[in-house]
UniProtKB/TrEMBL annotation:
Domain of life: Bacteria
GO MF term (any one): transcription cis-regulatory region binding
Protein name per UniProt: Transcriptional regulator
Keyword terms of this UniProt record: DNA-binding, Transcription, Transcription regulation
InterPro entries according to UniProt: LysR_HTH_N, LysR_subst-bd, WH-like_DNA-bd_sf, WH_DNA-bd_sf
Family annotation (PANTHER family): HTH-TYPE TRANSCRIPTIONAL ACTIVATOR BAUR, HTH-TYPE TRANSCRIPTIONAL REGULATOR
Domain (HTH lysR-type) ranges: 13-70
Taxonomic lineage: Bacteria, Pseudomonadati, Pseudomonadota, Gammaproteobacteria, Alteromonadales
Family: Belongs to the LysR transcriptional regulatory family.
Transmembrane segments: none
Length: 307
């Protein structure tokens, strides 16, 4: 049955034996597991012997030193945890099929939303409410670190932020990309300097704004050339610092364009000092409330990918 080479499937009897084994491990021995299992120590011993025989594996040792798992026993115990967790997850999923989703659906984002993102999220919320009218939707802004923590700890269902770094346990999908450019305002000495006269040495003489976020390799390489004198994650914060003339910094073209048109901001060597700014939809690999996550991801992906 359980012989890995046999290729046979688990039977109900096998599952019963594995439950006994799991209880024995978690109670630290045969005697301690008697009350929990509701069977005698001798019956537990018979079940354990039967399991070892069917698996052809020595699972544990007993003696004066007490109960202990063998190395293979440890492996089987970890596999048991995964097995019974999957069974419970399946039972919960089947039990919830057909039941309306209730409670809270938490969506967190890290940046002030532009008009396009607001419209896409609004359309996604409409779809979500049509499919799950009893859900309470919570939409709030948080730092990237707080969003990642909330997703990992099942305190949020979906995050919308620049996911440049890989986090174990999280999945991300880029749904929006825009180029970011190095900018200087009319108050900066660089405003009237020709691109041909601007080099790394000259840029290093001017204080720059650090974006306070992990960037892709192209962005990181450019930041290493600058001399930082300020920090600003939000684009409106960077814009205020740039307009002061005291700093140069990166802005998306959509934010900079109105000021470029007014000739109060210019791009610095745009072919050389730019990198893609990407926003991703992020969720936990194995969230507690998979239906809510799937509903939100489907609705948001549809809007952001098609619009």
């Amino acid at each position: 049955m359980l012989d890995p080479l046999s290729g046979k499937q688990l039977s109900e009897y096998d599952l019963r034996l594995l439950r006994v084994f799991k209880a024995v491990v978690e109670h630290g021995g045969f005697a301690a597991a008697e009350h929990s299992l509701g069977i005698t120590r001798s019956t537990i011993s018979v079940h354990m012997s039967s399991l070892e025989s069917r698996m052809n594996i020595k699972l544990c040792v007993r003696g004066r030193a007490g109960f202990a798992l063998t190395e293979r026993g440890q492996t089987v115990y970890q596999a048991c945890l995964q097995l019974f967790s999957s069974i419970q997850e399946f039972a919960s999923l089947v039990d919830n099929l057909g039941k309306p989703l209730t409670g809270e659906l938490v969506i967190l984002y890290s940046d002030l939303l532009d008009h396009r993102s607001i419209e896409n999220i609004a359309k996604a919320v409409t779809v979500i409410k049509q499919q799950a009218p009893r859900l309470c939707i919570s939409l709030n802004m948080e730092s990237v670190a707080n969003i990642e923590s909330a997703l990992i700890n099942n305190q949020a269902h979906v995050g919308f932020y620049p996911a440049y770094r890989s986090i174990d346990g999280l999945l991300s999908e880029v749904v929006f990309s825009e180029s970011i450019y190095l900018c200087a305002s009319k108050q900066s000495p660089l405003f009237g300097t020709l691109d041909a006269d601007i080099d790394r040495e000259l840029l290093a003489k001017h204080a720059a704004i650090h974006p306070s976020i992990e960037l892709n390799p192209k962005g990181r390489a450019q930041l290493q050339q600058l001399n930082f004198g300020a920090k600003g994650y939000q684009f409106d914060s960077r814009l205020a610092l740039i307009l002061s003339g005291a700093y140069i910094g990166y802005l998306p073209l959509s934010e900079a364009q109105p000021y470029i048109d007014q000739q109060t901001i210019r791009l610095i060597k745009p072919n050389e000092y730019s990198y893609p700014f990407e926003l991703s939809l992020v969720h936990k690999v194995n969230p507690n409330e998979k239906q809510k996550v799937q509903l939100a991801m489907d609705a948001l992906q549809t809007q952001f990918v098609t619009h």
